[in-house]
Amino acid sequence: MTRLRELEIATRPEHPDLSAALAARWAELPAHVKRPNQMLGRRMTGCEGTHGVFPRCNLACTPCYHAKEAQRVRTDGDHTEREVDRQMALLRELRGPGQHAQLIGGEVTLLGPDDHARALRAMIRHGRKPMSMTHGDFDYDYLEQLALDPVSGKPRFEHLAFAGHFDSTMLGRRGIERVHDEAELNDHRARFCAMFERLEREHGITHYLAHNMTVTPRNIDQIPQLVRDCRRMGFRMLSFQPAAYIGNEARWKDEYRAICTDEVWQRIERGAGARLHHNAEQVGDVRCNRTAHGLSVGDRYATLLDEDDPRDARALADFIVAFGGMDFEAGGRRLRAVRVARAIARHPAVLPSGARWAARLLRRIGGVRALRRERPRAITYVMHAFMDARDVRPAWELMQRGEVSDDPTIRATQERLQACSYAMAHPESGTLVPACAQHAVLDPLENLRLARLLPARDRS
Ligand code: SF4
Fold it and tell me: Which numbered atom of ligand 1 lies nearest the CA of 386?
């Protein structure tokens, strides 16, 4: 009977813990984001990130979202593994399995390759899909040592996901200490992607690469060319973060509020050569996040979902009713096939609406002929707009007391924090904290504590 029950659970499209976590997430979302295209609470419980693990970095960004105390903390593998393990355990408990989690702090490659691998394993152990966040200034030797077991020399991961932060707001990269123009970094971006291609070629370890860019008034007009330059390098996600006044105040250089998120998005679209339909799907609050999934075939970009076409909205709704938060990567092929069959049986309307959507997508791509000419590549454009610390601090303090602000700016900040899609775990209190609140409110004290626990031997 137990075996039967286990089999029944294993073949469900959604693990029951994920079903419960999705329902809880939906219930806690504020009313203004509970729209038909909202992915939180339906498809995912949210993105996750680590904190208080390795806050130190060996490059300098302007701005830097880390408190200045971060540089006083030594990077320590045992501490990192222990903290990652505790944080991921809480995320597994509250957010269910199969969610994307970023191994993020200062610079992840300041961890030795084995320590880095231990941290990733801890994340996988707790059902997370880890992505290492890096400035990308490391060598193939490091990547290979991370990927391979030091004793057997065999792969210790089947797949690695990395996000590389490359932009002209950064100082101190090897071979290009100071960058004046985004294009000057193209060789470094290409080299980063080439390392992962080599790893796949030599060891069969697949990869997913994202490119992160902080956007300021100085580099905003370089976005279109950057998108054109990057989209064939091997990145599958191009993510843009308009600069915010958060973290180390000594690194705030420009009038960041001189640009607005619409202007950033327009430039991304100019580079993509197409309209990017960010209203087709929403992740949390639209003031925080925009996401556009699409396919590239040659220089042609086709949106996965047309936000103006109600038939695409219907197809998305049917997909979610049928599959919910199903993880299409988890389990073996046979298990996935049974899960898909059960999802279709749960909501058979997904088949005709999915088939019609696929036909529309094929037309958008340019038909079968275009497919024969070139294999389509999935590409996702993302914009994530962190909030200013001066708004987050009072908003967060009021929220801790269960109060809603009278001030429209602070109230808007509270709304966004409530709908936050990027959480960090605090096992000591059993709570999850939005990354904005983590960086604006909690990081400075946390880093002071860490500096006492793990004092850096130098301050470089
Ligand atoms: S509240 Fe902050 S961390 Fe959360 S989604 Fe919005 S901008 Fe991102």
Answer: 7
Best residue among 40, 387, 396, 441 to mutate for probing ligand 1's pocket (most ligand atoms within 8 Å of CB) is 387
Neighbours of 306 (CB within 10 A): 18
Whether 139 shows a pLDDT value over 60: the answer reads: yes
Tokens 């500096």 correspond to what residue?
451
Beta strand 377-384 with 159-165 is unpaired
The CB of 284 under 6 Å from ligand 1? The reply is yes
Q: Which tokens in the block code for residue 312?
A: 């695409």
The pLDDT of residue 458 is 60
Say if 344 falls within a structural domain: no
Expressed in angstroms and rounded, the spacing between residue 287 Cα and the centre of ligand 1 is 9
Tell me if 160 sits within 8 A of 147, measured CB to CB.
yes
pLDDT digits (tens, 9 = 90+) for 260-303: 999 999 999 999 999 999 999 999 999 999 999 999 988 889 99
Q: What percent of the chain has pLDDT over 70?
A: 99
Q: Which pLDDT band holds residue 246 (cuts at 50, 70, 90)?
A: confident
User: 288 in ligand 1 pocket by Cβ < 6 Å?
Assistant: yes
Domain membership of residue 45 (yes or no) is: yes
Q: What pLDDT is attached to residue 460?
A: 43
Instruction: Kindly report, residue by residue over 291-348, the tens digit of the pLDDT.
Output: 999 999 888 899 999 999 999 999 999 999 999 999 999 989 999 999 999 999 999 9
Q: How many domains does the chain have?
A: 1
Q: Which protein residue has the closest C-alpha to ligand 1 atom 2?
A: 436
Indicate whether residue 386 lines ligand 1 (CB < 6 A): yes
Which are the contacts of 185, defined by CB distance < 8 A and separation ≥ 6?
Answer: 166, 167, 168, 173, 176, 179
Tell me: pLDDT of 21 over 90. yes
C-beta of 420 in contact with ligand 1 (< 6 A): yes
Supply the CATH number for residue 248's domain: 3.20.20
Distance 291 CA to ligand 1 centre (A): 14
Q: How far is the CA of 420 from the centre of ligand 1 (A)?
A: 5
Q: Which of 164, 91, 157 is nearest to 132 (CA)?
A: 164
Determine the structural domain holding residue 224 and report its residue range: 18-307+378-453
| Run of H or E including 85 | helix 77-95
Residue 76 lies in a domain: yes
Give residue 185 CA to ligand 1 midpoint distance, Å: 28
Which residue is closest in CA terms to ligand 1's atom 7? 386
Contacts of 104 (CB under 8 A, 6+ apart): 49, 50, 51, 133
Let me know if residue 354 belongs to a domain: no
3-state secondary structure of 3: helix
The pTM of this model reads 0.95
Q: Is 180 exposed, middle or buried (0-12, 13-18, 19+ CB in 10 A)?
A: exposed
In this predicted structure, what is the pLDDT of residue 61? Answer: 84
